[in-house]
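Narrative of activities, Objective 1.

The group set out to show that a structural description can be obtained from nothing but a protein's sequence at a throughput compatible with the screening campaign. Below is one input-output pair from the validation batch, recorded exactly as produced.
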Amino acid sequence: MPMPVPVPASAAELYRHGLRLLLAKDIPGWVGLWAEDGVMEFPFAPPGWPRRLEGREAVAEYMRPYPDHIDLHDFPEADLRIHETADPRTIVAEMRGTGRLVRTGGPYDMRYVAVVTVDDGRITAYRDYWNPLAALETGGELAGSPR
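Output recorded for this entry:
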């Protein structure tokens, strides 16, 4: 029987752990950080793209094709800032993801701001503020794009 992975103690540690899982292309591991009823929101999603995902299964379905579209190489430490808030369960993260687009081989370079809330070691809310114009420039091949 596999040993359970220790849950990071703080929201910031859990977030950093999640970034490592994304770089390892371990989408099931990343989804495993979510509470069963966690909610992911995309306030800047363009028309036709999901604006809200309710529940771990919806997040899993959204993220499943991600490695087929984007080959993430790095979240440069110089561009990663995690801000604690008055609520110790909530952080605001600024970051940049770099890599390549799988279909075209072109570069991927996206800046994000995320507001993440963690309860009992699991993500319960994640508001992802990414640039939809940059996503559309990729030809709509990001995870969650209309197919």
